[in-house]
Amino acid sequence: MARMTVHSSPPLRNDPAAARPRHPQLACYPRPVTDPVCHDPDLPPLPDTSHLITENDDPVDNIPSEKNQRLLVGSLYASWEGAPPIEIDGEVLTEGRRSFLATANVGLFDRPINDPLVPDVLVSNDVALGPHEWGPQGTRSYFVWEQGKPPELVIELVSNKKGGELAVKRLRYAQMRVAHYVVFDPAKRLGDRSLRAFKLAGDRLEPVAVAEGALVEIESLGLKLGPWEGTFEQQTGTWLRFWDLDGELLLTGDEKAEAERHKAEAERQKADLLAAKLRELGVDPDAL
User: Low-confidence residues of the chain, pLDDT below 50?
Assistant: First the structure.
């Protein structure tokens, strides 16, 4: 994360003229997909957050965690088209696959008065980055009141016994109304399981039964999540990865390119074998 920086003056998002159409009112938390009030351009200005520390330049992650964060986020952007359309009682409320945001090690703020949590990975449906997150004067963090909703999924990668993943963080994410919470602990520092999953039920994140080595379904994303034995960036070990509901592993861009190279090589070899067979039969394959 980044060195602590505090805005010296209120950022542009506090200018009423710059208030974004997706700024939610209280009734939009969580934001109803079809509620027009959530898209009203005349909404009041966003709360002043100039006092919040949103970035901190001090490196805090170990190498395995950093690599797994990039593996998870990179495979989503390389191989996932987004969650399926929302359908209720046979009525489709959204068209096509939905937009999403996946980030690693970014501040998650639920209220302007609260300190953030910084999940290793978060995934949120129906969210797109705007200038207030991406621009030089923006927050560049995930503000629930701006996005109108919490993330569907938060992932924590366990590095030691001091992170509070099963206690304090679990409680805070439940208070934020995060739908799915996954804790990946390949070294089993917190107990005898490498993967723990929780699902929001009422005001609590309740445990989901997951057999060791099995995948857990993240219903709101239409994905599965679980351990994978393999090599990523020349490092072989146990990684946390995404699969689709058909059991297909979500590949990174490099993995997709490698798969295409293997496919092209297999097709070339097949063509060479066919050409050799034709020549044995006295047929010139180039003349066909």
Answer: 1-39, 59
